[in-house]
Design a protein that fits this description.
Two copies of one chain form a homodimer. By secondary structure, chain A is α+β, with helices and mostly antiparallel strands. Chain A contains ten helices and 23 strands. At the A-B interface, α3, α4, β12 and α10 of A face α3, α4, β12 and α10 of B.
Chain lengths: 335, 335
């Protein structure tokens, strides 16, 4: 099929309409077909169209001056080679179910193309995923690295379902030591049954800052430093002095505990919490608490997802809004 | 043994000297023994000393008002329980070979204690490791998480040995498309033999920005955009516009290539490069390029080390100095 390039857009005449009818390329315009840059490049490389004065390298070099076109082309090509019909828009591609195509079928994925260095703004991703879910589409991030290799991530909003609540704890006094708290309870106390604390010796259980504040907040633990009673607010204040992330980590900790989950430190996995859904030998999620307006380069998220995957856990970010926590899961997928 | 606490320091009289002689606790002072806070807490918890008016909780609560004492105590206790004699200083502990002790033997490790949130300043760690190596000691970071669990990392300075150099490449022209470069070579070209580029189709090989600049820099590749010849400097300029880390990543890339290694994108592992020492099926190192004055929270490094370990690779940071690259390896160890 002959096509023309006016310096901005590639168009075909009436004979190009077969490209649309048979495989969903382009968008109809008058009697002809208008091709997106990725479509034109793909068809040109495959020898399906010819453009006077432009070979593939030259057309790619022209389009490459626009941001994102090269990487977006690689994603487009990969999706086409996997047998999907793909339409450009709304962000950046709509991918149809296998065997279906524009005008004749339904799209399955919304695909956003980004580079490994692009920052992920969690609040705006959450909005996009919400929109996609409302339209019953899966939201997929296609990331392109410096060698133009592709990785796909499905992004899902999660609300961990409520589990059985923990029993009521007995009233107890604690002594603050640094940021932790010592309580005097024998081994196999109710606290340990609910996976609070780590054992210091046969008499003493050591509660982490989150555990201390959670237990003091639900009213069962009164705290003192050197004979002086200290309030939960004072304790939060103390903790924040050496940890700027403390407050949003605490919110995620409390939310998970209230839902019946057991969050423990995730340090060995490089994240805030490893989370158990009940007293099980293995934790099932890594949860990293982030602020509402948090931003992270994609390569950092890629590291988290890869790590979580290697230890067979889900990777969730807990985004702290004033109204509650929005959990967002990143999972590598093969399309 | 009876000891006294003056509000700052715990001391024993002459009968305390057996603690030093038999197990290397404390430092001699006059006729008696002066104990570091960690030593006093350990001996008190073990019931080896008694202090009027102070039980363990009370002494710990007092010392806990000093920064780092609680976490440092947990490391001290762990090392003692593993059967090591430990002396405080220079940073933070000297650990003796098993069966040896202060005055009678040699220390093996210098141990620095940090919390999971502490920032690691690479340049100052490099200095400390250097000092330790000059004294023929291993440098170990003991990290303490929010639940007072311990993880030990050995830190080593590395200089990857030179491997066989790559052959000379033929002169060739390339077309810049975005940040990558297209060269026209048939499959199994010399470039691919040295693991440069990724294949676009049977005629075209796509070079990444690092590969392009490296090959152009050693003089075998001349580059053009839209008929116009472009210099290596222009290309570096272009790349830096969208990537603030570009320059130090490039320096590490070039250094590794000059040593005969093959760095490829490490995106899938969440780091800058995966590095092959020759044409092998698996890469052996993950290398992350950082600036001379880079700083990173320990939890972030923990994530990197855990990930590298899970894919059986070494985790190296390439610290870019004006005089060259200093590679520094973090490896989790069991003491």
């Amino acid at each position: 099929v002959k096509a023309a390039f006016d310096g901005t857009t590639v168009r075909c005449g009436q004979d190009g309409l077969t490209l649309y009818d048979q495989a969903g390329f382009g968008r109809k315009e008058g009697n002809g077909l208008k091709l997106a840059p990725q479509e034109a490049l793909y068809l040109l490389q495959r020898g399906k169209i010819k453009i006077d004065d432009y070979d593939f390298d030259k057309l790619l070099a022209v389009f490459a001056e626009q941001p994102n076109i090269v990487r977006s082309y690689f994603v487009y090509r990969d999706l086409r080679e996997r047998g999907y019909a793909v339409q450009t828009g709304p962000h950046d591609f709509r991918v149809f179910k296998r065997g279906q195509r524009p005008g004749k079928g339904e799209s399955l994925y919304f695909i956003r193309v980004i580079s490994e260095r692009d920052p992920i703004q969690f609040s705006s991703i959450i909005k996009e995923v919400n929109t996609a879910h409302n339209m019953r589409k899966q939201y997929v991030l296609a990331t392109v690295d410096d060698e133009n290799e592709l990785t796909y991530y499905e992004i899902k909003l999660q609300t961990p379902p409520h589990l059985e609540p923990f029993p009521i704890f007995p009233s107890i006094n604690g002594t603050i030591v640094g940021k932790s708290t010592i309580i005097h309870v024998p081994p196999k106390s109710q606290f340990e049954e609910a996976w609070f604390g780590s054992r210091l010796d046969d008499n003493r259980l050591l509660l982490s800052p989150f555990e201390t504040i959670y237990l003091a907040g639900i009213g069962d633990l009164s705290l003192k430093i050197d004979m002086r009673i200290i309030s939960v607010e004072d304790l939060i204040q103390r903790a924040q002095e050496t940890d700027t992330e403390f407050l949003h980590k605490l919110k995620v900790y409390e939310d998970l505990r209230k839902r019946g989950y057991i969050p423990k430190t995730g340090y060995k996995f490089g994240h805030h919490f490893r989370v158990y859904s009940g007293q099980k030998p293995h934790s099932e999620m890594l949860v990293h608490a982030i602020e509402e307006n948090a931003e992270m380069p994609m390569i950092t998220i890629s590291r988290s997802v890869r790590l979580a995957h290697s230890v067979k856990k889900k990777m969730l970010f807990g985004c702290v809004y004033s109204t509650g926590i929005q959990y967002i899961e990143f999972a590598r997928i093969k399309l």
